[in-house]
């Protein structure tokens, strides 16, 4: 096995060590302990709390709750709001959230995340439109995610793997439903999936017999830890049997040379050495301006998109 990696030549920079890079390429995933600190997590945490307040308002207006629980802390408020309600009530707000709230933009552009991603995809980094906030609420069946490959959500896009950056916003434990993966499955072909029926979601799922004999690794991690993984890697997460919300995000990045997947929404240029002035600003992102468009006159924009097409082909 060692010989396989002897010819390893690094072609990218970024913050990952050669060893981490080899680990990611070999195992299909990498754990970056304590990647984010409290200051990094505060803006997205504010966005999560903002969304929870909107939900509380809606539940209150519909007479489903009598107390908005405004003093409950981040870990507990959403769990307690849905305490006496059903899975269907929860799913009305989506099993995961993709809101354009300022705090998420700061997270998606966080230099610590982009530095790590740069080691994997190079310095022209596109933030894929598929980014999720996952509030895994106790007893809500949709919190448990079946075995799947992320690529099953974009089977026809991108020959090159998209990098998922999964980050826990509370300590992810066996009890609250941490991530589980099967190392070294990233080189398997895209497996035939089916739509999962029990949880009322449209999760793509694999049957037990498709999982092969690869061992499963559970990844309990502390808040602020990131797990990077390849979009063919088999992974799942277990139910939340705790009394609090298992908050996490899953962000995705790829090189600008790949399909921007407009069928999934609008991504953005997150970092660029070639075109630093085209990197999306908060205003671009909030307005959902298409990739690489930037500001300027219509003529300048047209010229830029022609240049970009030339440089990306
Ligand atoms: O956060 C989870 O529980 C599952 C995450 C997942 O499946 C993903 O990020 O693709």
TrEMBL record:
Keyword terms of this UniProt record: Dioxygenase, Oxidoreductase
A GO molecular function held by the record: 2-oxoglutarate-dependent dioxygenase activity
Stretch list, region Disordered: 286-313
Keyword Mitochondrion: no
Top-level taxon of origin: Bacteria
Signal peptide segment: none
PANTHER family from the UniProt entry: PHYTANOYL-COA DIOXYGENASE (PTHR20883:SF14), PHYTANOYL-COA DIOXYGENASE DOMAIN CONTAINING 1 (PTHR20883)
Protein name: Ectoine hydroxylase-related dioxygenase (Phytanoyl-CoA dioxygenase family)
């Amino acid at each position: 096995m060692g010989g396989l990696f002897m010819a390893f030549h690094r072609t990218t920079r970024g913050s990952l060590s050669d060893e981490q890079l080899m680990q990611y390429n070999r195992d299909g995933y990498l754990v970056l302990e304590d990647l984010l600190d409290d200051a990094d997590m505060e803006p997205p945490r504010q966005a999560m709390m903002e969304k929870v307040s909107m939900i509380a308002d809606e539940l209150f207006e519909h007479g489903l709750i009598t107390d908005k629980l405004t003093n409950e802390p981040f870990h507990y408020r959403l769990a307690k709001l849905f305490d006496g309600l059903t899975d269907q009530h929860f799913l009305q707000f989506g099993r995961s959230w993709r809101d354009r709230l300022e705090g998420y933009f700061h997270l998606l552009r966080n230099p610590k995340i982009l530095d790590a991603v740069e080691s994997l995809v190079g310095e022209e980094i596109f933030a894929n439109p598929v980014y999720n906030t996952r509030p895994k609420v106790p007893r809500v069946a949709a919190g448990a995610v079946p075995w799947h490959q992320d690529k099953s959500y974009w089977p026809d896009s991108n020959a090159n793997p998209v990098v998922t950056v999964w980050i826990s916003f509370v300590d992810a434990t066996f009890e609250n439903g941490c991530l589980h993966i099967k190392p070294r499955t990233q080189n398997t072909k895209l497996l035939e999936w089916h739509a999962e029926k029990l949880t009322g979601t449209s999760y793509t799922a694999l049957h037990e017999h498709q999982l092969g004999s690869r061992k499963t690794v559970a990844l309990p991690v502390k808040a602020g830890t990131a797990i990077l993984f390849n979009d063919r890697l088999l992974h799942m997460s277990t139910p939340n049997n705790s009394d609090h919300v298992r908050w996490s995000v899953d962000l995705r990045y790829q090189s600008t040379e790949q399909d921007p997947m407009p069928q999934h929404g609008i991504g953005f240029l997150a970092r660029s050495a070639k075109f630093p002035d085209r990197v999306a600003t908060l205003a671009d992102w909030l307005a959902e301006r298409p990739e690489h468009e930037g500001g300027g006159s219509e003529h300048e924009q047209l010229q830029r998109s022609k240049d970009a097409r030339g440089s990306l082909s």
